[in-house]
């Protein structure tokens, strides 16, 4: 009886450790499995959400962006449904991208009219890079300084392994590049000294427990971003201390980060098909035609205004 009494707690403890560590999968096994799974992605649905809140001079600004993507890798196809809510006011739009030989056709709405624009692969990589799940997660796996398995979580009804990738302070800039934060925030010309001392960055990734396919990643950029903005503020006003800040400025230009949270997840893996473009999209005019029409209208209005102007 005493032996059984001693063994039961040990078995329970072992069971909990096994459960919380991702069914015994080692970090290295998960990483390698994730790389293989990412390379085999042919199509998927992707959902992103960005929740941002800034405060300055007593005014709060809140932006929530929720985008849904249908993505087929080859031949490339992407349908994007976008919802942006700025201080409570929502705007929605849709975009299509289709591969066409050596180029890609972008279909978007300007002034309530569908416009078509041809771009090359380099420009396509730029405009889709902000929301490229496969590339971002691949870069995170490759470049983060450490990776730990922190437990398990249910996502979309499936058991997942929960892991945390950490970029150390010395490698923070690489982390910001891997999640496309530097370009998204307009920091491309920022001096590296602004990033120094901004701390580390943790990125949480969920992996399918059977295939190790990454299905979601998320991060909270608020702590790092606040330090960077504070340093930029002091640099702009040539401030070396908080006391000097009170003397030189009333702090009305100082930005406080209320939140900066981002998540990106995928589903319907390898089961998305390119859909037929709606008729109104097929009839889209070229961007060049749209631009020429816009300029013709502008010059026509200018001439009319000149003719109607009273003579002096």
What are its keywords?
312 residues; alpha+beta; outer membrane lipoprotein receptor (LolB), chain A; globular; disordered N terminus
Distance between the termini: 112 Å
What's the overall geometry? Answer: globular
Number of helices: 10
How big a fraction of the residues is strand? 35-45%
Percent helix: 25-40%
What name does the CATH topology of the domain at 27-85 and 133-278 carry? outer membrane lipoprotein receptor (LolB), chain A
Identify the strand order in the major beta sheet: 7-8-9-10-11-1-2-3-4-5-6-12
Account of the protein in words:
With 312 residues, the chain is an alpha+beta fold. It has a domain of 205 residues: Clam (outer membrane lipoprotein receptor (LolB), chain A). 35% of the residues lie in helices and 37% in strands. The protein contains 10 helices and 12 strands. It has a 12-stranded mixed beta sheet. Strand 3 and strand 4 form a beta hairpin. Helix 2 runs antiparallel to helix 4. The termini are far apart. The N terminus is likely disordered.
How are the secondary structure elements laid out?
Blueprint: H1 2-20, H2 27-39, E1 43-56, E2 59-72, E3 77-86, E4 89-100, E5 103-110, E6 113-119, H3 121-128, H4 133-143, E7 146-155, E8 158-167, H5 172-178, H6 181-184, E9 201-208, E10 214-220, H7 222-236, H8 242-248, E11 255-267, H9 279-282, E12 285-286, H10 287-308
């Amino acid at each position: 009886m005493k032996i059984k009494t001693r063994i039961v707690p040990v078995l329970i403890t072992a069971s909990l450790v096994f459960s919380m560590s991702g069914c015994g999968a080692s970090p290295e096994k998960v990483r390698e499995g994730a790389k293989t799974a990412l390379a085999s992605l042919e199509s998927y649905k992707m959902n992103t959400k960005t929740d941002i809140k800034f405060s300055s001079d007593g005014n709060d600004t809140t932006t929530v962006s929720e985008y849904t993507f249908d993505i087929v890798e080859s031949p490339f196809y992407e349908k994007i449904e976008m919802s942006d809510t700025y201080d409570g006011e929502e705007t929605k739009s849709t975009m299509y991208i289709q591969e066409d030989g050596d180029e890609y056709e972008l279909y978007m709405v300007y002034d309530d009219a569908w416009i078509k624009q041809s771009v090359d692969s380099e420009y396509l990589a730029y405009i889709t890079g902000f929301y490229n799940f496969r590339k971002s997660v691949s870069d995170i796996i490759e470049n983060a300084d450490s990776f730990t398995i922190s437990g398990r979580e249910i996502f979309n009804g499936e058991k997942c392994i929960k892991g945390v990738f950490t970029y150390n302070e010395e490698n923070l800039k690489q982390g910001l590049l891997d999640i496309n934060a530097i370009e998204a925030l307009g920091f491309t010309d920022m001096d590296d000294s602004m990033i120094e001392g901004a701390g580390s960055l943790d990125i949480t990734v969920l992996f399918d427990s059977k295939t190790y396919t990454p299905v979601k990643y998320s991060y909270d950029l608020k702590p790092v971003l606040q330090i960077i903005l504070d340093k930029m503020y002091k640099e702009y006003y040539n401030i070396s201390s908080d006391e000097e800040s009170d003397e030189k400025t009333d702090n009305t230009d100082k930005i406080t980060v209320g939140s900066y949270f981002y998540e990106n997840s995928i589903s319907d893996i390898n089961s998305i098909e390119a859909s037929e473009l709606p008729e109104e999209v097929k009839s889209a005019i070229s961007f060049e035609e749209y631009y020429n029409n816009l300029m013709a209208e502008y010059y026509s209005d200018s001439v009319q205004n000149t003719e109607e102007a009273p003579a002096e």
